[in-house]
Amino acid sequence: MRRRTLLSFASVGVLGGALAACGPAVTGKDTGSGSGGGSSSSGTVRVGHVPSSLFAPLYVADAMGYFEDAGITIELTPLKSGQDGIPMLSNDQLDVMIAGFSAGMFNALDQGLAFKIVGSMGISPGDPENSPTALEVSQKLLDDGSVSSIADLKGRKIGVAGGPGATGGYLLAAMLEEEGLTLNDVEVSNLSTPDQEPALTNGSVEAATPSAPFSTAMEEAGVASPLAVPKKGTTGTGVLYSETFVGADLAQDFFSALAKGSQELSADGAQTDEVYQILADTLGQESDVLKSAPMYSYLPDLAPQPDQLEAMQTVWIDAEQITYTEPIDVTTVVDASFAEGASA
Predict the structure, then answer these.
(1) Listed residue (122, 90, 85) closest to 102, CA to CA
(2) Do the Cβ atoms of 305 and 120 come closer than 8 Å?
(3) pLDDT score of 10 more than 80
(4) Statement: the pTM of the whole predicted model exceeds 0.90
(5) Which candidate in 96, 111, 142, 294 could, as Cys together with 132 as Cys, close a disulfide (CB 3.0–4.6 Å)?
């Protein structure tokens, strides 16, 4: 694998915490005649997001005026994690959330919190030489032959931001699965991404799942090298609607505008200067750094991925991160109609 020199589209860092006080979201008013939504509707949509270039379609659609063209004003509410936004979404303090999925999300569904998963976000390209996320292993263990394959990680401690029940835990599980291991076969340590290199250096963990530029830094320092990347098609993030917003006039118009943002993103990862500048301005990063970074891919209609949701649920039930044992039927949670409307 060549070294990845970039800022990851898996995690660029949070720009701020959730708003301290959030009233009910404004879901738009129909200014036309008759019932139901349509192009005549206009209003404000409150969007909770974890600030990251992983969610590029949101920022591109906003900057290119696609929401404005649809008569929509968006209010962006930064979140520390997707789990933080679930109660706000369920209580109509948010209309939309764009973030990572977690075991806590499934637990919330089981406990009766209501929302719908309506779309996908970044999807792993599966390129071992150009992946936004990688399984980095201590260089010492690689050099002395203690670890030469994923199977050799059995029983070892691996640092994951958010722990086993976070999106990173699922990505780790997807990589371990390639050689028959599960989260139960390793010891997962909840370790923030910036803390993973020091932990690898002092031996408190033996592997980690950082995103660039943190992965690049540890590789260049000789601390670790990548052993695996998530296979093509793996995803742990997406778009969620509140139960109220699902039936709102603006719901389809918002998603169609979001999908237009996705369609501005090149499938091969080489974006236009305009797109890179939008991300740089939004996230406070250097455009040149972004241009060097491995990117996730995006579906043009941002269709939800129920197979990935089923895989997540299975992983987290087996790892006892989910409090129930009988899987939820994900078809009752997924609503693909907005993606279908966006591609119509």
Answers:
(1) 85
(2) yes
(3) no
(4) no
(5) 294
